[in-house]
Amino acid sequence: MQVLKKIALFFLVIGLFGCNGRLTDNHISLSDQKYEIVDYDVLDESLRTENALNVGVLLPLSGKAANIGQGMQNAMFLALDDLKNNKVVLKFYDTKSTGIGAKQAAEKAIAGGAQLILGPLMSDEVKNTSRVALSDDIPVISFTTSPQIKKKGVYSIGLLNGEQIDRIVSYATAKGKTRLALLLPDNNSGLNILKSAMMSALNYNARVTQVGFYNPESVDFSSIVKELSSSVDFDTVLIADGGNRLKSMASMFAYNDILYPDVLFLGTAAWDNTNLSKETMLYHSVYPMVSKKYGSYFTEKYKNTFGEQPKTVYSFAYDSVLLASVLSSKCQNGLDVCITNKNGFNGVNGYFKILPTGQSYHSLDVLEVTKDGPKVVSSANRKNENYVENEMDIRYIPYEQLPKIYGKNSSEVISGLYNN
Fold first, then answer.
1. In this model, does residue 18 exceed pLDDT 90?
2. Predicted TM-score of the model (pTM)
């Protein structure tokens, strides 16, 4: 049993109360009352309703990702506390942070009557889960940010690189920036970001001109930044990293006289976990992030309850329970139809929808780095709610428009883009 400090005496009036509802003000009061979260494997039948939606939740509750999995479970407990919906029943299964563990957890969940699976977290876990779930026509709403999950019936509620890149490239081109340089890790994530950036650049009449790849384990970026800066055929630089690595990269660009306002620096949501208020070389830089208009409620409740700052992924775990709550009471035409409802949903991360391709779309703020902390310069809205992620075949891009590649063999990059 897990004991949780109960701080909400009223329902969270949430926008996921219907397939295209609105998120209204939260009414919260404090209490010192404590209560036990039930063990969902031995759930009292009196708490069930006749038509309850049985949800199997697959999380890494042990193994290398146990801390994250347990934090996500805590966030789901908060959502249950807020919703008080006995038409949705969650049962938790440990993936043990491995693909094999995820497969076994999925088998247990389905044997236990799961009609929907939330999770797992990592791409290899999702691959193993999907093989089991799809054979029984059980939809999977995962938390992976890998675009390689594309299968009918397998979805992601996570914040994907593609939607981040599209939002920030759209913002930059609206400011007149049309030539992008990218500094990316030499791995699948880097290739995915490059592919997304090239696709978005085409959509907004811009072009990726240069790309530098670095060893993801490296802490010295002087050589790759120097190479990338040797031919300044760009007015924008996107850095897909955070923390001290981001700060080190920014200082290297400054050392090579690549500075604002001549060059606008762009980031990803990874920047949001980095305190940049003293990094003067990154002032005026911008990055995308889910709206914190409602997320601040979740953050404060999590901190007050568990005594620590929640990781970003925890809020997606919270929203997944809200989505399951909708599906438990408002779905008349099959779970897949409701999950991919074109009107989308509202949660603590703002407006989002899940596409039939399995990818997600979130309406994102654009934040500017300032000495006083991040400042919203372009608010999240639903004007792109009809966004559909298009597939791009790089073979249709003229050879002369392909970017110059630094830090990696060009043919290897092109091959990776074809196959990624």
1. no
2. 0.84
